[in-house]
Amino acid sequence: MTQAQKTIAIVGAGAAGCLAAIEAKRRMPGSDVRILEAGAAPMAKLALTGGGRCNLTNTFEEVTDLKWVYPRGERLMKRALRQFGAAETMRWFEEEGVRLTEEEGGRIFPASGDARQVVQALERALRRLDISLLCRRRVLSIRPVLPEGRYELRTGSGETFPADAVIVTTGGSPRRSGLSFLDPLDLATVPPVPSLFTLRLSDSGLKALMGTVAPDAVLSIPGTGFKASGPLLLTDWGIGGPATLRLSSYAARYLADCGYGCPVAVNWTGANEQEVRDGLQRLTGGQSRKLAANTPLPGLSARLWSYLLERSGARPDIRWGEFGGKGLNRLISTLTNDVYETTGRAAFKEEFVTCGGVSLDAIHPHTLEAKTHTGLFFAGEVLDIDAVTGGFNLQAAWTTGWICARSTADYCTKSLSL
Ligand SMILES: Cc1cc2nc3c(=O)[nH]c(=O)nc-3n(C[C@H](O)[C@H](O)[C@H](O)COP(=O)(O)OP(=O)(O)OC[C@H]3O[C@@H](n4cnc5c(N)ncnc54)[C@H](O)[C@@H]3O)c2cc1C
């Protein structure tokens, strides 16, 4: 038997699927690698990533703990990134002719600022390696063919494709029906819910502050451990910006379970009560005759400061010297623990990812092979792995796609030698 007789089917021509196909073919040049893609063209989402600029990875230099980056899949990613991490990814794309540039927060983009360059690099490699890309082929089921140990994939048009090994890279889907093609395999899945979104708030007073940023805010959900910090952007519907996106990621399932209606506490300053008290006392002591409205706490814009003073119950023309103990306490509480009700979620530039998918308990963490089905592998967002913004989601796709390719090659080589 030769490698030419091995057929590897890849389900989904997204980031993970295309990289997995290329790497599988490089390792098994004689094999028949086919990608079955539901859409009319490959990598449609990749072309839109990063607002069309594709934040394809991150240096991870500012990441102190992976759990703040991968709320789901942290342990698996820790191990996986050692095999094919950011440095390997950057080298991979540079070798394919994509010059890269680094931006704030360690975010890596193509220097051209054009996501299509990343797509084209992958397309070129697919062509060069003669990988068949079959578009408009939505896979509706994957069945094991026993006792041969092969798989049969059935598409929407009724065609069937046999395969010796299958890599599933169908991406995220916020609905359970997006995983129904896996039903014949009886794999454990985690119900999918959206992650990375902004929040609607009931308080209409904030609308007037649209466009304002609190640069060092901390958001939390009272009564839970969910907390996220960073710039907070006030929008015409509620709150956005990095702090909100992070909170939506950490608390994705909790927020889904409560129908996106729960209290959210805003610490506008990022400082604790005592630090804010000390800061205010410096202002009240040194500038007692000054209007409080004219001397905002450092870091807060004049508009936001006036709003918060009013929200704490202070008169608009109050002078620092007129604050009593109670008034100061109310202001400190507003600055550090200002509670709003969320009334729903809203899209963040349409960039949501899915929390949930194929359970990590169902796959071997080292090979990404299904525990109950040899020769069946999973990569990318179809797995219960997702990240905050910053290039970490695409890195998960590249990393797991690369590992699946290596595992598939090992599996095929082993089965040839039996
Ligand atoms: C607008 C937007 C912008 C984003 N920007 C960034 C960014 O800048 N940086 C970052 O790190 N992350 C970003 N993300 C997240 C990132 O794009 C995804 O996490 C990543 O694309 C996942 O890769 P994947 O290969 O697993 O899935 P996808 O890229 O979604 O690919 C899955 C493919 O499978 C196909 N498919 C699905 N079901 C079937 C089926 N049954 N049969 C056959 N084919 C099927 C789909 O058509 C699709 O082509 C962004 C997401 C969005 C929505």
- Report the portion of residues in β strands: 15-25%
Structural class: alpha+beta
The rounded Rg comes to 25 Å
Per CATH, which architecture of the largest domain?
3-Layer(bba) Sandwich
Terminus-to-terminus distance: 11 Å
How many strand elements? 19
Number of helices: 11
CATH-defined fold name of the largest domain: FAD/NAD(P)-binding domain
* Main sheet makeup: 6 strands, antiparallel, barrel
Give the mean pLDDT: 94
Top CATH class of the largest domain: Alpha Beta
* Main sheet strand line-up: 12-15-14-13-16-17
Integer count of domains: 2
Shape: elongated
Secondary-structure element pattern, one letter each: EHEHEHHEEHEEEEEEEEEEHHEHHHEEEH
Task: Describe, in short, the structure shown.
This protein has 418 residues and is an alpha+beta fold. Helix content is 31%, strand content 23%.
